[in-house]
Amino acid sequence: MTNNLLIKSAKVIDATSKWNNQVVDIQIENGKIANIASDIKSDNIETFDANGNFISLGWFDAFATCPDPGANWKEDLVSLSHAARIGGFTSVAAICGSNPLPENATVISQIKHTANLCDVQIYPLGLSSEHQQGKEMAEVFEMFKAGSIGQTDGIVSSASVSLRSKLMQYCASLNIPYLHFPFESKLVTGGVVNEGIINVNLGLKGLPVASETMAILSDLVMAEWLNAPIRLIGISSAASVEIIRKAKADGIEVYAAVPIMNLAYNENAVGEFDENFKVYPPLRTEEDRLALIQGVLDGTIDAIISNHCPDDIESKNVEFEYASFGAATLPSFFNMMLDTFGSDFNKVVNTLANGANKIYNMPKKSFEVGEIADFTIFSTELEHTITKQNQGTKAYNVLGLNKTSKGKVIAVVSKGLLHNN
């Protein structure tokens, strides 16, 4: 593979581009867009025929996890990049590392070095608190200087209000993105699914919506008080969408991201005790799911995250109550998107391409000559079956394994290079 490439007959999906809905050829030289036209003739250059399928700006996953360095039998950085590519992503922001944790500059530098060898762009996230315990601030600035794209403790319970306010103020002063998962764990302990009819019927302890909205409200009060932005990952309820919508209307700088599983499924999915549907944040009611979808469509929610959480058989193939939280969602991400949005899918392609850029203060990508070549090429008609042979990830807890769905990511162009799926 070279970073000089000619993509033939690709239909552009980008509502902000003059090429939107047009079938074009795209010439790439030295990793950048050199030409866009209806027909480009070029000899002695690698050519990829898109056969009229769709091309969009490359999708950027704003949050995933990977236990490498550490438990790399569950997932390593290379397999993470393969899974991301299959899901349609050209970039992933991820908490990488379980032993050691990504809580100092040395670990961040190690992750960046390994990530340079991967198919897609992997941006490391640094922990916002020491040992991910939510008690003391980690080496935030040192990690950012070493290459972390932002600071977060990921999908774990909230740090204290005191620490969160310090993180918001400190990170804002240095223009470092701070991401927070809004969940007040002290409100309820031992919860495993949404609090409601399902948890009662299954005899499982519930996680109330209030545990999420309480944390969001406190974050928004602090954001207004400190004049600092807040980035919320893991929104799961209709109440949260409405709170965030009002906060944005009131001029508070708040960004929100929703996990794909909370868009694609509701709480009924846990009815057969499938451990892959035991996730943080929990799957909630159908009303919540529909409100989240509307939140994406109207711009209240800025990004859709994979919330990819790879795990092994020992942690997941146990009784539901004792199974670890999380699912490996990257391989099935595109299929879940199509199932969720259907004919509205084209409306959210820009959210996939630029939503994470907004969260991380990165320049908006555009379909113009001179821009970095970063594309996702996909079909909404081709059928695709996720198997152990093509899932990319090493994880046991792959969502949608052996399921055939409409829609397939054909290839991505990342780092200026073409990668076929």
Task: Walk me through this protein's architecture.
This protein has 2 domains: 5-54 and 370-420, Roll (Urease, subunit C, domain 1); 58-359, Metal-dependent hydrolases (TIM Barrel). A hairpin with a 2-residue loop joins strand 17 and strand 18. Helix content is 29%, strand content 23%. The two termini are 14 Å apart. The mean pLDDT is 95. It contains 12 helices and 18 strands. The relative contact order is 0.17. The strands form 4 sheets. Strands 1, 2, 3, 4, 5, 16, 17 and 18 form an 8-stranded mixed β-sheet that branches. Strands 9-10-13-14-15 form a 5-stranded parallel β-sheet. A 3-stranded parallel β-sheet has the order 6-7-8.
Number of helices: 12
Give me the CATH architecture of the largest domain, please: Alpha-Beta Barrel
Q: What is the count of β-strands?
A: 18
What's the CATH H-level superfamily name of the largest domain?
A: Metal-dependent hydrolases
Largest sheet: 8 strands, mixed
Strand content: 15-25%
Structural class: alpha/beta
- CATH third-level topology of the largest domain: TIM Barrel
What's the overall average pLDDT, rounded?
95
The proportion of residues forming helix, as a percent range, comes to 25-40%
Shape: globular
Could you give the distance between the termini? 14 Å
Number of domains: 2
